Give the backbone structure.
Amino acid sequence: MNAMSAKRKTTRKAGALREEKGRPRKEPAGSRRDKMGEHAGASLRGTTPHGGIADVVVIGAGAFGGWTAWHLAKRGVRVALVDAWGAGNARGTSSGEARILRFAYGEKTLYSEWTHRARDLWREYEAEWRVPLFVPCGMLWMFREENAYYRDSVAELGRLKEPWEKMSATEAARRFPQFAFDAAEFALYEPKAGLVRARRAMQTVAAQVERLGGVVKTGWVEAPGEPPRGNGARLASVSVRTGAGSEEVYSGAFVFACGPWLPQIFPRLVGRRIAVTQQDVFYFGAPAGDVQFEAAQMPAWADYDTEFYGTPGCDVCGFKLANNLGEPGFDPTKGERTVRPETQEAARGYLARRFPAMAQAPLVRTRVCQYERTPDSNVVLDRHPEWENVWIAGGGSGHGFKFGPALGEFLAGLVLKGGREKIPAPLRIGASEHPESGELREKGAY
């Protein structure tokens, strides 16, 4: 969502930012924004693309950026949400028809907690906004052994009081006849899991940011360059390029939640932390009149050992099948969205083995998206080490969409109140790096 460019203007910590495009509007005494004090006060003041007041500019309208902007706007903060092609666009990672929402995460219990919280937020706000977003179809895992991932997952599910069932291959085949199981396999079923309508969700969140008074703008945010040396530096503005030209956008704080563009914007900080991989997705068509592969009758699923996963048909989009193990080096801006023959062949082979009734199903649609993979599949969430008013969120590694509402809630609190020490160490900038060879670890999104 962004490109590299010249340095932006910076200021030091001494006092509020100067207003360079007009004076800030004074809020009525006692108003919600007036009561926020330092949270939305002079230290977070700037000007939006339209000449109004923006306390925070959020770059990227995906799951992390969109929900962070919404939580800020909900708290009365004046927000500008900027995305190069708009919320839910085809180049973005938070696009497509559906994303799985599951709670099993092995030892990464933070993400189980965030997903638990996010599921409540998805359901609460789809009801308030009257837009159906969450599909409670359940989630079925296939395992070959009770490994550490399985044991840690069920322990955390129990702690969260999320229901789960372990099934033998025979029992799983009886409950879910769409699947074929090897005798050595067993299944873990999460009945309260499901999927989220991804594109619709992000477009809805952006619309709600605007409804709360935020500015939602389509534009390309140029990379801000390198900060000056020393502590206490602040980024004063970013340059936003549109079809009508470029304009400088001033603000008190900035959140860069730009998904696969983050390594281009901050190559020194996350160039070795985030690898952008091409992910080929396949949609197969069920036989006419056969609804057993629809969400009303079939759960979302994942095969732990092979890393194939998929979702049932939803909103007539077809039966989705994909694999977490993608090819690194994908360019999210210029990359051709064409699936590779070898991944299509592998998908066909798995389809025939796992879903015999779909073995001859036609391929009705393909899609190429991307993951922003970190070495350990932890997300990246941190304050910029030199610019104290810049926050970075990304590295979703193929699994971050589901807990976007909870991460956005957490990050909004950090932007307003500080508290970098609250960020778990594995999420911070510099916590891990891919090797110089660019080789990815064996496991993908788990």
